[in-house]
Amino acid sequence: MRRWFKKGLDTASSIMFVMTYGFGTTLMSSISFANDISSRESDSKMVKRIESVTKKGLFHVKE
């Protein structure tokens, strides 16, 4: 019983780690991408699109 519980706990923690890590990298890359775009003021349309997407809480940039 204890062995099964420990195995389940390990699996759950690894899944949580992968999810958190994946979300974190997606978030960081979108932030750096947004900063990259906003540094070029000529791409103001793209900046507005990124900002609107980020406000909704979605971090996928639609081209």
Structural overview:
The protein is mainly α. It has one domain (2-56). The chain is 79% helix and 0% strand. The chain has two helices and no strands. It has helices at residues 2-38, 44-56. The longest helix is centred in the N-terminal third of the chain and has 37 residues, at 2-38. The protein is rod-shaped, with a radius of gyration of 18 Å. It starts with a helix and ends in a 7-residue tail after the last helix. The mean pLDDT is 68.
Helix count from the secondary structure assignment? 2
Helix proportion = over 70%
Structural class: mainly alpha
Q: What fraction of residues sit in β-strands?
A: under 5%
Segments where pLDDT lies below 50 for 5+ residues?
none
How do the helices and strands follow one another from N- to C-terminus?
HH
Instruction: Profile the largest sheet.
Output: none
Shape: rod-shaped
Tally of individual domains: 1
Question: What is the terminal-to-terminal distance?
Answer: 51 Å
Mean pLDDT comes to 68
Total number of strands:
0
Radius of gyration: 18 Å
